[in-house]
Amino acid sequence: MNQTEKFMEEQKSKANEIETVLKEIGDKIEELVKKGADAGMDAKEEVEKKIQELKENKTTLEEELKKGKALLEREFKERKEEIKPKLKESKGFLKEGLKQFGLALKALFSKKS
Q1: Quick one: pLDDT band at residue 39, thresholds 50, 70, 90?
Q2: Rounded to an integer, what distance in angstroms lies between the CA atom of residue 23 and that of residue 28?
Q3: What range does the domain containing 53 cover?
Q4: pLDDT at 113 over 70
Q5: How far is CA 74 from CA 16, 36, 68, in A?
Q6: pLDDT-based confidence at 52, cuts 50/70/90?
Q7: Residue 88, CB-side half-sphere exposure with 13 Å CA sphere
Q8: How far apart are CA 21 and CA 105, in angstroms?
Q9: 33 lies in a domain?
Q10: Is residue 110 part of a domain?
């Protein structure tokens, strides 16, 4: 696994962790909604206010996560396109090196005969 792929895997792992946290936040919001239904009127208004704030924050976090994922994907594609010509060139060098090595072995063994 090359460095770019390793970097991308780390970023995907972090994105998955954020998604897990967002799910947990959603679960907590649902729990607060249930508790708010059982609370008195004053407490219920306060709980509903907090629930609304949490929902707004969760939406903001989800939007930021989407932006981050899109940025990460774009960066990966750019780096991949950047690296492709270098990999192709390296492949050519490797082939030429193997060819030269083969010729050297052939010359070495033909001298011994």
Answers
A1: low
A2: 9
A3: 3-83
A4: no
A5: 18, 43, 10
A6: confident
A7: 6
A8: 60
A9: yes
A10: no
Q: Which residues contact 109 (CB under 8 A, 6 or more apart)?
A: none
For residues 55-94, one letter each, b for 16 or more C-beta atoms within 10 angstroms of the residue's C-beta and e for the rest, the string is eeebeeeeeeeeeeeeebeeebeeeeeeeeeeeeeeeeee
| Residue corresponding to tokens 């629930």 | 51
Mean pLDDT, residues 71-100 taken together: 86
| Range of weakest confidence among 15-19, 26-30, 43-47 | 43-47
Q: What pTM value is reported for the model? A: 0.44
Q: At 95, which helix (H) or strand (E)?
A: helix 41-112
Domain count, the chain: 1
Q: Residue written as tokens 């947990």?
A: 24
